[in-house]
Design brief:
Elements lengths: L2 E3 L3 E3 L2 H12 L5 H8 L3 H12 L21 E9 L4 H9 L4 E6 L6 E7 L2 H12 L4 E8 L16
Antiparallel strand pairs: 1-2, 3-5, 3-6, 4-5
Helix pairs in contact: 2-3
InterPro entries: AsnC-type_HTH_dom, Dimeric_a/b-barrel, Tscrpt_reg_AsnC-like, Tscrpt_reg_AsnC/Lrp_C, WH-like_DNA-bd_sf, WH_DNA-bd_sf
GO cellular component, one term: cytosol
Keywords: DNA-binding, Transcription, Transcription regulation
């Protein structure tokens, strides 16, 4: 079962690892399928999943991961931004209002944020980057176009032995 080690970081045990490995391959696997595949009792699987998916649990909330092309936005870009820390909260509020912003991360280094956006084409990307520049506290941006996804987001390899 998950436990806390160090500074409150949840640590998962071998049974949790096994459940997560199957879910990585089959995210919609049922409790019955997990129990049968892993030779565990259904109650055990239900209890483990409840702890893993609890608000303070280690499993991120389940969300639909659409391919940008499926919603008519085949162009992906990463915008790095320098921010005025005094207006940070308002800036995040403004960024969240731009629908094409699909992820925003606080980062270290020359920039303060990495913002992933999706766009229809180069003209649309220009419009989006201009909207980002109008957000409170954005000082400067730099945009890199995603040419190809080489390794898609993955976590299953972390559940290995």
């Amino acid at each position: 079962m998950t436990s806390d080690v160090g500074q409150g970081s949840p640590v998962i045990d071998q049974t949790d690892h096994r459940i997560l490995a199957v879910l990585d391959d089959r995210p919609r696997a049922s409790v019955a399928f997990l129990a049968e595949t892993l030779h565990l009792a259904r109650g055990t699987v239900r209890t483990r999943l409840a702890k893993l998916t609890a608000p303070d649990g280690p499993l991120a909330p389940v969300t639909a991961r659409l391919a940008p092309t499926a919603v008519g936005r085949p162009l992906r870009a990463v915008v790095t931004a320098e921010a005025d820390q005094a207006t940070f909260d308002g800036m995040i509020d403004d960024l969240s209002l731009i629908p094409e912003v699909v992820e925003c991360l606080g980062i270290s280094g020359r920039s303060d944020m990495s913002i992933e956006v999706v766009a229809v084409d180069a003209d649309d990307l220009y419009r989006i980057t201009q909207a980002i520049m109008r957000c409170r506290g954005i000082r400067r941006t730099e945009t890199g176009i995603v040419m190809r996804e080489l390794i898609p987001r993955r976590m299953g390899q972390l559940c290995g032995d």
